[in-house]
Write a structure and sequence with these properties.
This protein has 315 residues and is of the alpha/beta class. The radius of gyration is 20 Å and the shape is globular.
């Protein structure tokens, strides 16, 4: 008796990434209709039989976040009602991840709410990448496979010609990620101290670490308005940094971020295609995480370990 067949479906947030994943694992993307009624309600219909199949639905919850989250929930519910044997929500970028705690009175923990909604809709498993806070995995009562973009970024960084490279975290919260890159690249580590003035305005006021006459790599998990990146890059340039690179896993850059980066000292922004990046007039290098996600999907389907995907060139 044949086991469940692997079926890969795409939401509307990032179909190009899904095509790359499908090409990499040698299967076609599934046939699904995703559109809207005149009043904005989302409609989903699978145009092929998925009864008893192992279904993977790929959808980043990037802007417009609410629309893409609702679309994902509806796709999961439709797959459950079509009797799929297992439904894995592949979420390369998990939105609302920054709302992961009560840091002031009378506010929600929205990343937990989104986790509850995904489970309630019928998801059996989550596959995601570079969560803003790793403890979000604990918000789910179903298995979560949490991957990292660092193998792809590391390969690219090794190809760059740099001198006296120093890795900098733009804030204290990103020190763990920055430390991992510093260990891999065998270079010093530092960080910027910052103060957030508003949701889109950041002030960097000191640097821990020597960056004078060094090439600097700023490492962060995401950038949207680029306030943190730009504030850190200006301070680093003042402290004598020679060239400034920024590597972020999720380049969810909006119009404010594009305008800021255009005028900033950042020489190159390195990001991935977990979300669509619309910044053609900026020095942006977009690396594809499709090979990592595709391999993870194959291993999950085959009930194999995904541990080796965390390893980088033997590290």
């Amino acid at each position: 008796m044949k086991g469940p067949q692997l079926k890969l479906f795409s939401g509307s947030s990032n179909p190009e990434l899904v095509r790359k994943i499908a090409d990499g694992i040698g299967i076609p993307t599934g046939e699904v209709v995703v559109n809207s009624f005149p009043d904005g309600e989302t409609f989903v219909r699978y145009n092929e039989n998925i009864r008893g199949d192992d279904v993977f639905i790929v959808q980043s919850t990037s802007a417009p976040a609410n629309h893409h989250i609702m679309e994902l929930l509806i796709m999961i519910d439709a797959a459950r009602r079509a009797s799929a044997s297992r439904i894995t929500a592949v979420i390369p970028f998990y939105g609302y991840a920054r709302q992961d705690r009560k840091d002031q009175p009378r506010v929600p923990i929205t990343s937990k709410l989104v986790a509850n909604l995904l489970v309630a809709s019928g998801a059996n498993r989550i596959l995601t990448m570079d969560l803003h806070a790793q403890q979000i995995q604990g918000f789910f009562d179903i298995p979560v496979d949490h991957l990292y973009a660092s193998p792809v970024v590391y390969d690219y960084l090794r190809s760059l010609s740099t001198e006296n490279l120093t890795v900098i975290s733009p804030d204290v919260g990103g020190m763990k990620m920055a430390a991992a890159y510093a260990d891999l690249l065998g270079c010093p580590l530092g960080f910027c101290a910052k103060r957030r003035l508003s949701a889109d305005t950041v002030e960097a006021h000191s640097v821990v670490g020597d960056v004078r006459d060094c090439d600097v790599l700023i490492v962060d998990d995401m950038t949207e308005t680029a306030g943190t990146l730009v504030a850190a890059s200006k301070l680093l340039r003042e402290r004598g940094a020679r060239r400034i690179f920024a590597a972020v896993s999720h380049g969810t850059i909006n119009k404010i971020g594009i305008a800021r980066l255009r005028e900033s000292p950042v020489d190159e922004l390195i990001t991935t295609d977990t979300t669509r990046v619309d910044a053609d007039d900026l020095p942006v290098t977009v690396l594809s995480v499709a090979p990592i996600l595709g391999e993870a999907i194959k291993r999950i389907h085959g009930n194999s370990s995904v541990t080796s995907l965390f390893q980088i060139k033997g590290y």
